[in-house]
Structure formats: C-alpha cells, structure tokens
Amino acid sequence: xxxxxxxxxxxxxxxxxxxxxxxxxxxxxxxxxxxxxxxxxxxxxxxxxxxxxxxxxxxxxxxxxxxxxxxxxxxxxxxxxxxxxxxxxxxxxxxxxxxxxxxxxxxxxxxxxxxxxxxxxxxxxxxxxxxxxxxxxxxxxxxxxxxxxxxxxxxxxxxxxxxxxxxxxxxxxxxxxxxxxxxxxxxxxxxxxxxxxxxxxxxxxxxxxxxxxxxxxxxxxxxxxxxxxxxxxxxxxxxxxxxxxxxxxxxxx
Length: 253
Fold this sequence. Notes:
The chain is of the alpha/beta class. The protein is 16% helix and 35% strand. The protein is built from 5 helices and 20 strands. The strands form 4 sheets. The protein has a 7-stranded mixed β-sheet, covered by helices on one side. Strand 4 and strand 5 form a beta hairpin. The longest helix has 11 residues.
C-alpha cells in the first residue's frame, strides 16, 4: 500500500494495483462560493497531477473535496465515485461515468478494490456526507477515510481497520466550535478500529491560507501529542504527520 499526500484532503492511494485519486485539489486556488475575502487557499508548490488514475473518489460536494478547477482539468473519462453531492458536481462538469454512493452502499473497482460509503461529516442541519472504507480484495488490507473527524458508530462493526486517514488536529471557530475534530475523535476511533497506522489529513500541506475564517480559526493539538495519547491508552497504533508530496509506503502485517 502506498499513500501520497497531495496537501489538504487530497491523496493518491495505491492499493492492490489500483490508483485512486481522493478529494483532489491540484490546480488553482481554493475558494468557497467565490468569496475570497472569507477563505482563500493557495498552494505554494502545487503537486503534479498523477498519471494513470483508475478512479476519482469524492467524499463531499464542497470545494475542498470536489474542487471544480481540478475536476475541470482532469480527464472526464476517468470514472468518478462520490457522495450524492459530489456526484452532482462531477456530472455537471461533464464526467462520463459517475457513481453516487449512499451510506452503506459499495462499489467494486474491478476484482481488486471495494469502496464502501459510511456516514461522514454533517454539512448543515440535515446533510451527512460520506466517509469511506477502501479494501484491497487481493491483499485484504483496508483504509478508513473521514476528512473532518466525524466517525459513525456503524464503524465499530468494521474492525479491524489497517489504516485510518483522518484529522489529528482540532480546528475551532468562536461560538461554532470544532469544524475539524482531531485529537479526541481520532483517539476514540482508534480504540474502536485498532489500526496499525493513523495518518493526519485536512490541516496539513504546503499551503498559504488567507481570509476572515482563517483569522478566526484556532488550531489545537499536534501529531506528536497524539502519539503520546496513543501510548497513554495502550494502543500500538502509530500516528504519522505526512509531508507535502510525500509517498508513504506501508508494510502492514
């Protein structure tokens, strides 16, 4: 299993011979609703677009997961699997093969990989987007991904999970509370799933962020502190803080 960190929530997952591009933001700036004064992200050293992608996987329909400039740039013949909101974005941008997954539905990528949607992040009062369990059908190794740190009780039935990709740092807004749930939520899901490795996402990468939201956000916790939490709770899981563009090759047991 190889995992390449492409900044923010973006990953290239190589599992059982398949290459999965997850929540890609690879070109241009990240702006929500054309409101640059509110939030604006710019990559300092953009990563190249990976080649030979077998599938694009989108957990949400928001710009930091279904990034329109990136999706416009990618080949529209690449199949897309997405949450219903992510599928809508991909369809509107002209992708030829789009599969929408509701919670607990699955998609098979050939005979090599199975992708199962699980409840993920709440977006607004009624919408819950997707997390994913990605399983290699030949190796039997699996990954659980949730980009905002919202972990459904349904996951307890999925144990054990080999690798978790989720936030390890809290990001909070005044009055609203956590927009990214890190340390406590990540520790709880490690207790449930007993992963060999947990890898931080969402808050990392070589990116310059500006705007009103950034000025109000408060970060809490570090990956090093989380490793101490794991040890204090007698968990053998190893926490990794990925670096921009780094490929992590995991030798899983």
